[in-house]
Amino acid sequence: MSQAGTRNAARDMFEADVASRSLGIELVEAGAGTATARMRVTEAMLNGYQIMHGGYLFLLADTAFGCACNSHGPMTVAAGAEVSFIAAAHLGDELTAVASERTRYGRNGIYDVTVYRDGPGGPVTVAEFRGRSRTVERESEAT
Amino acid sequence: MSQAGTRNAARDMFEADVASRSLGIELVEAGAGTATARMRVTEAMLNGYQIMHGGYLFLLADTAFGCACNSHGPMTVAAGAEVSFIAAAHLGDELTAVASERTRYGRNGIYDVTVYRDGPGGPVTVAEFRGRSRTVERESEAT
Amino acid sequence: MSQAGTRNAARDMFEADVASRSLGIELVEAGAGTATARMRVTEAMLNGYQIMHGGYLFLLADTAFGCACNSHGPMTVAAGAEVSFIAAAHLGDELTAVASERTRYGRNGIYDVTVYRDGPGGPVTVAEFRGRSRTVERESEAT
Amino acid sequence: MSQAGTRNAARDMFEADVASRSLGIELVEAGAGTATARMRVTEAMLNGYQIMHGGYLFLLADTAFGCACNSHGPMTVAAGAEVSFIAAAHLGDELTAVASERTRYGRNGIYDVTVYRDGPGGPVTVAEFRGRSRTVERESEAT
């Protein structure tokens, strides 16, 4: 698929992704098997410890993963994921999630996503995420 | 800790959890090492395929996990998690996340969370989540 | 499938499993979606810190998982797994791995395995393992 | 730490690792946060389907991970790992595991290991492994 086509498949999916767009997530870059997404931490994302709820951190990574694994064209869904929470994110932090494809085999794929924020001494990693994708014909075949 | 105390530690944390409460999550049950949370899928939670964004599914499980692992009192954070997405959730579905403690060792814990919705033939599992917790003195010691 | 049939499917596979049998692993129990396997830690299993190499701990859990997920009949392989190492195992320890099915969906399954050793105050958990299985027609379709 | 020092910390640990050496594993390379290990599949490693037991595949990856995460000097143990099995390995295959450090934070680290074999058209990925490490003062503090 041409770079332009790739860009469009991921971008089209992102345009229709109400969840990501409602949260102010921006799709910064989308290539073949890659994607970069960005989000700012708002008050509505804070948990009982006044730090960003892990669910929103996961969501940002999952959006970047979804754009990367759908960049090849066919409908591809998340089969699962593993995440390590490395540093807390706070109100106002701008987080960037960078997804890249590690491998594809059959209808499966593995994608790594690093989420970071900018710190005084350079980027600070906030989470490391690894997603497992599955290409399907239609939603009902997702498993 | 008494059952009543347990209930209060998790409930207090949940009361302060703006992220979970903004999404309409209810804490249905909270015991020693256990918690049940419930959420209805809204339009703002749908992704580009018109199914619930995996991030919100994770968030619900993570909230139940957070209540269960903080039920013992000391501040406990998520160190990481693993999730398998089993069935899609749709607009209007009411999802229930049931968290239970599998083991604790040192300052670590492992908690299993099953997310399901009710179907005509009984509960339908939507996701299986396993969280790893870490008890800390204060947030800066999270790692 | 009858309990007797289940027993035989897992037992037949185990009988042919040279890797497990060469290490002295015993299949203690095999039911529908469950299996219990046992192994003693030998010198050949120790790593550079004089504790059991994590690979052998994983292997024991994986054998119990394999028996449990093949108990239903059709050829089923491990698609992946997640393990947490909880306590060290030492020379001479007898380890028991108990596998149970958490869920099955389409051609996938999730199985939990707890590995423990007996301590003076009761069983001590050594590892928690979660395996993801995939039923295939033949090996070449494994993915 | 100098490159030479790094090399020696990992190499010393590997020299003492009876489990890895008994299986014929070779430590091909060891640098700061990296390691490459190699192993040939023997008959004693085959499971009931006549393919390499996943436990041995994990073990090879875990050895490379162990060398990489101990390259910095202080005693470091595996806290856990996640593995995806991508292709079957067969009798006689020579497998190579390449470990690299993704991040370190506090006493924790995350390491990625790719296991591959050589195929007619280039390397074929057999497994993707992600290990979580924990630096400890002594074994009893492992958790």
Description:
The structure is a homotetramer of 143-residue chains. Chain A is 24% helix and 43% strand. By secondary structure, chain A is of the alpha+beta class. Chain A has one domain: Thiol Ester Dehydrase, Chain A. In chain A, strands 1-2-4-5-6-3 form a six-stranded antiparallel beta sheet. In chain A, a hairpin with a 2-residue loop joins strand 5 and strand 6. The radius of gyration of chain A is 15 Å and the shape is globular. The model of chain A has no long low-confidence stretch (mean pLDDT 93). Chains in contact: A-B, A-C, A-D, B-C, B-D, C-D. Chain A binds chain B through residues 12-20, 22, 43-49, 51-56, 58-60, 62-63, 66, 75, 77-88, 139, 142-143, and chain B through 12-20, 22, 43-49, 51-56, 58-60, 62-63, 66, 75, 77-88, 139, 142-143.
